[in-house]
Design a protein that fits this description.
Elements (H helix, E strand, L loop, with lengths): L1 H17 L12 E9 L2 E8 L2 E7 L1 H7 L2 E10 L3 E18 L5 E18 L4 E19 L4 E22 L4 E10 L7 E12 L4 E16 L6 E17 L1
Antiparallel strand pairs: 1-4, 1-12, 2-3, 2-12, 3-5, 4-5, 5-6, 6-7, 7-8, 8-9, 9-10, 10-11, 11-12
């Protein structure tokens, strides 16, 4: 994880060196931006594999301790009325927990990939509607250690959720704005229900360089299969984010 921080820090320094003095955002035309970001995510909820269910409560510090690899990034392109945005999150991590009856201990490891693509319709310069698809892929392995036996289960699952939502941009100055986003989805197509909320402070530091800090939460309630093939992922992931990007 230190290596990831060093890479992001080097990218920030390089962008700061290349960027000129702050400039106002241009009006009109099609504008694109791409960013990489870090998220101090925590996870809380339940994971079920076959007939067994495990409660997890993972603080962000534990995720960083057990994080093997992560890639987080986004793209946005918007014109006067229409736009598109995409987001990619990949994390590989593990966590110890307790069984649903509190009798057994468990270890859950997960590799998670979330890819989202949204179409954006701009009702005004500040308010947008969005609709898109969010793919979630999980490779989960779990071991339960009980007084009499040890059990292992693993599963590879992927599902696609339609999502709809809105976002609002509130300017605080010529180069500073607050971004608020909320969306819901699933509707039984993938998840039974999923929601996401985002609050960010965005700073257009120069004509090319943009920085952002904020907080993001994603809740997913997904279940499939029966008996030994059953899988459940009812988990809330949330935490602060810090982003650096280029506008072009």
């Amino acid at each position: 994880m230190r290596a990831a921080f060093r890479i992001v820090a080097s990218a920030v320094l390089a962008l700061l060196a290349a960027a000129g003095p702050p400039a106002l955002a241009e009006e009109g035309g099609f504008r694109s931006s791409a960013e990489v970001y870090l998220m101090g995510a925590s996870m809380a909820g339940t994971v079920g594999l076959g007939p067994l269910e495990t409660a997890i409560d993972v603080p962000s510090s534990t995720i960083f301790e057990n994080l093997d690899f992560a890639v987080l990034g986004g793209y946005r392109g918007a014109g006067p009325k229409w736009g598109v945005q995409a987001d990619v999150v990949y994390m590989a991590l593990g966590q110890d927990g307790t069984g649903s009856q509190g009798v057994v201990s468990a270890h859950v490891g997960a590799k998670e990939l979330i890819v989202e693509v949204d179409a954006v319709y701009r009702l005004s310069g500040r308010f947008e509607l969005l609709a898109g698809l969010r793919y979630s892929g999980l490779k989960t392995e779990a071991r339960w250690y009980g007084p009499r036996e040890t059990r292992e289960e693993s599963v590879d699952k992927g599902w696609l959720d339609p999502v709809v939502g809105a976002q609002l941009f509130v300017p605080l100055s010529k180069s500073l704005e607050v971004q608020l986003r909320g969306d819901v989805g699933g509707f039984g197509v993938g998840c039974d229900f999923t929601w996401q909320a985002l609050a960010r402070l965005n700073w257009q530091a120069s004509k090319a360089l943009q920085l952002g800090v904020g907080y993001r939460a994603l809740d997913q309630d997904y279940a499939s299969g029966d008996g030994s093939a059953a899988f459940a992922w009812d988990v809330l992931q949330q935490g602060p984010i810090a982003a650096v990007g280029l506008r072009f």
